[in-house]
């Protein structure tokens, strides 16, 4: 048995889209609900974490609402939302790569390797706090 998804009537979608672009939140909600499940699945496929995917999909829907006036109709509404989703994911991935990782955040093997490398580094200068303690003791 083949199950097909119901597609909303195109004229109804065009009406919903026009109403959403005019600022009607209920119309946007109807459009978003039609894409919500597939948007979430795409988010899970991108980030491999259901919790993060929920946040990503929700943020995408919010951004879609905030920028619905810029939707020009050159593609399907769902395609436009997926593009926002991918852009948000890429942006968050770039931010994550630029953030320093704590030693505790590393996998066990990497943590041990980094810790042993740090232990082998020469101690060139004392820490600033140690300098202050030494200076206070000298007085």
Task: Please give the radius of gyration in angstroms.
Answer: 25 Å
Please give the largest β-sheet: none
Query: Percent range for helical residues?
Result: over 70%
By secondary-structure content and strand pairing, the structural class works out as mainly alpha
- List the total number of helices: 6
Taken as a percent bin, the fraction of beta residues is under 5%
**Unreliable spans:** 1-9
Secondary structure tally: strands: 0
Overall pLDDT confidence: 82
Order of helices and strands: HHHHHH
Distance between the termini: 88 Å
The outline comes out as elongated
Question: What are the salient characteristics of this protein?
Answer:
6 helices; single chain; 139 residues; mainly alpha; 0% strand
Short description:
This protein is 71% helix and 0% strand. The chain has 139 residues and is mostly helical.
Could you explain how this protein is built, in words?
With 139 residues, the protein is an all-alpha fold. The chain is 71% helix and 0% strand. The protein has helices spanning 10-21, 25-47, 50-66, 77-98, 108-120, 128-138. Helix 2 (25-47) runs antiparallel to helix 3 (50-66). The termini are far apart. 14% of the residues are buried.
